[in-house]
Amino acid sequence: MVVAPSTQYSNLLFRFMKNPEHLVRVLELSAFPPRYSNEDLSYLHLEDIQVAAIAMVCFCDIKRERLGKHASPQGYGEYGIALRKEWGLANNVQPVQYIN
Q1: What's the maximum distance between 2 C-alpha atoms anywhere in the chain?
Q2: How far is the C-alpha of 57 from the C-alpha of 37, rounded, in Å?
Q3: Tell me, what's the pLDDT at 47?
């Protein structure tokens, strides 16, 4: 099945950061060091775990012309890198699943 490209999303994955040294580090390592995010898992009704620090690297696939505030000092940062979605698929990048 062929899926038509969405007009809302880009064929690129963007990773932004506020600190230029973080971008230099990504380029030096040829890798994206994960950050830890505290996630509330109470909705899973697990007895022993309520909050977990999960290692993750976040990308977005917003069209370039819509990046505006996203790629700014007030947003996720003005330093960034863009990679083709094919790279993401080849490197097992998984989309975030949002739950209301």
Answers
A1: 45
A2: 10
A3: 80
State both tokens at 75. 């947003």
Angstrom distances, CA of residue 60 to CA of 51, 52, 91: 24, 23, 15
Q: How far apart are CA 22 and CA 33, in angstroms?
A: 9
The residue length of the chain stands at 100
Q: pLDDT tens digit string along 72-83? A: 888 889 999 999
Q: Which residues of the chain have pLDDT under 70?
A: 1-7, 50, 97-100
Residue with token string 């999960």: 54
Structure tokens at 85: 């979605």
- pTM for the whole thing? 0.74
Sequence-distant (6+) residues with CB within 8 A of 64 are: 10, 12
DSSP assignment of 37-96 = EEEE-GGG--SS-SEEEEEE---EEE-GGG-GGGGSTTTT-SEEEEEEHHHHHHTT----
